Amino acid sequence: MDLLVFLFEGGKPHAVAVKLCGKTGKVLEVLEDSEGKNMKFISEVQERDGKLWFGSVFLPSVWVLDHQ
């Protein structure tokens, strides 16, 4: 499984989150950790009370970013 993730991601455990407008699909914001230093392999993001909660289906991890 780790090899598949490595190959799928191009060898870098990076993370990208994109916020889209629900009506138009326009990109509103992009957050990226291209080196995987803070987050890796994120699969979902939930915004709640001014914080962004990031999760991963590949890693048993949760990251929280205070977005205020």
Helix and strand arrangement:
Blueprint: H1 2-8, E1 15-20, E2 27-33, E3 44-48, E4 51-55, E5 62-66
Antiparallel strand pairs: 1-2, 3-4, 4-5
Q: What's the alpha carbon Rg, rounded to whole Å?
A: 13 Å
Give the number of helices. 1
Largest sheet properties: 3 strands, antiparallel
Low-confidence stretches: none
Backbone shape:
globular
Domain unit count = 1
What is the straight-line distance between the termini?
A: 36 Å
Tally of DSSP β-strands: 5
Q: Percent of residues in beta strands?
A: 35-45%
Measured as a percent range, the helix fraction is 10-25%
Residue-averaged pLDDT: 83
Order of helices and strands: HEEEEE
* Sequence of strands across the biggest β-sheet: 3-4-5
> Which structural category fits the helices and strands?
mainly beta
Keywords:
single chain, mainly beta, three-stranded antiparallel beta sheet, 68 residues, two-stranded antiparallel sheet
Describe the structure.
- This protein has 68 residues and is mostly beta strands.
- The chain has one domain (2-66).
- It is 10% helix and 41% strand.
- It contains 1 helix and 5 strands, in the order αβββββ.
- A 3-stranded antiparallel beta sheet has the order 3-4-5, with no helix packed on it.
- The N and C termini lie far apart (36 Å).
Summary of the model, kept short:
By secondary structure, the chain is mostly beta strands. It is built from one helix and five strands. Strand 4 and strand 5 form a beta hairpin.
